[in-house]
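User: Quick one: structure for sequence A, then sequence B.

Assistant: Sequence A:
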Amino acid sequence: MHKNSFKAILLAGLFVIGAMNSIASAQVTITIAPPLLPMYAQPPIPADGYMWTPGYWSWDSTNNDYFWVPGTWVIAPFVGALWTPGYWSFEDEGYTWHRGYWGSHVGYYGGISYGFGYVGNGYQGGYWNNGAFRYNSTVNNIGKSTISNRYSSKIEHQDRANRASFNGGNGGIHSHPTKNEQIINSMPHNQPTTEQAHHENVAHDNTDQRFSVNHGQPHIAATSQTGNFNIGRTESSRAVTQQASHRPVEPNAQKPRSIHLANPIRTTNPVMHQSGPRQPVPQQPVPQQHIPQPRPAQQQDKPAHQSRPAQQQEEHR
């Protein structure tokens, strides 16, 4: 191969790598505080092998408005997969979104108490054991499912009163990542799945999910399956009182101060409002890595045949 041709190919490859890195590190920063987390019940799990992913407020720069992405059950992308939710943080006089990810451990998610096992750090909704996931029926709505790989364990250190959806700033959660969480955050991660991207697309295109329309009480707060907003398989939010520190979003509200490229999970390139499907590239399972994060001892002793009460349990998230 000619030396100049080889050099041209090398430079082109470096350019592509640089572009990929810039996209991967892109974030969105907004000057309007995210709304409170709505109160809602968890819909029943569809079947064994599904993992709960909490709902969150995402930003729509076209309408200058937040919109609610319902909590939903997602098929685990690989054996051992655990979901670390995304979160907003107050940084440099703006609110920055940190996208969630799949990994072999649950990392830092801003100390946000999303409920249903996500108490602000770690995950108390279940754990993997011999290639199968064991569900904590105290916080997971097993419903009429035939799932037998379950146990019942009391949730500890959950702040049910604080429904702030961001870390830092006025009215936010004030917590910092532990040493273990810092290690986990530096590990290889899987991006949200194609189904999760589609789920956010459906929420984005549903006018009722916008904060300016629902005023913090989304009609569809949670769904049994990703992208399925049909009545009967969804949960609506309950009436709540907004914090005084939150500034409501109006149609002609202050324009956000964008410090970085916007990077919601529904986009995979720098074009913010592209037409057609907006889905991430399928990811390969991340390698299983050991972190000194022992599982609670009481979980080992719980019999698998225990069942949750028939009535659906409701949390503050």
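Sequence B:
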Amino acid sequence: MRTIGELIQDVNTAYNKGVGSDDTRLVPRYVYSKLLAARNRLINQQGNSTQKIGQAVYQTLPCIEMETAPIHECACLPPKGCTIYRSKYKLPQFLVNINDEMIQSVSTVTGEIEYHKTTWEEKKHTTGRRYVKKIHDYYIRNYRLYITAQTGPTTITLTGIFADPIIALSFKSFCDDCVGDDCVDCNSPLDIEFPIDGHKVNTLIEMVVIDIRENFSRGIEDRTNDSADSPEQQSK
């Protein structure tokens, strides 16, 4: 898998049709935003077709810390003997396919219990049903993960496709034992592997280069039109 830095270099090389000089090199943050946009388009195209999304694009949040949810945030009163739990911190933004988050699995850390997808709206209609406490399910609301359980898990594992891999990697894990300034990650984001299927890399780079060139062309056209419409031009 290629790193973010390697892909940015590849885009610069393709954009300049060779090794670019310092004065023509594109800003890394700008290129990264274009890589994300192109990657997300490719994944959505796969999700909307019969193509299988490769495992390489998924990321796992291994230790999501859970806490008891305030009753006013619950979709319904939990069945007798159960409590509703939510993730202590908001989750990173997921990619969405046909109005549904691209989540592959949600389970306990040991994998003994797998939670099945439901929605806040569906959960409201299960209030008072006796069998509910036997169902292991989850829903996402306001970027929080919610589950109903008789015995609350302290941590949950979730695998999905996130809009920004860097933000997903920086999600605060229950296993993080750092405090304050000790939590600063000195690793460069450029060294992070970019979640993309290997056979899609060339397509990704081509899409980014085309997008950047089109944006650059539109910028020149806009500046030309502004110049032509300026009072100085009109007065001549």
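Confidence is low (pLDDT under 50) at residues 179-184. The helical segments are 4-15, 28-47, 120-124, 165-169, 201-228, 231-234.

User: Thanks, that's what I needed.
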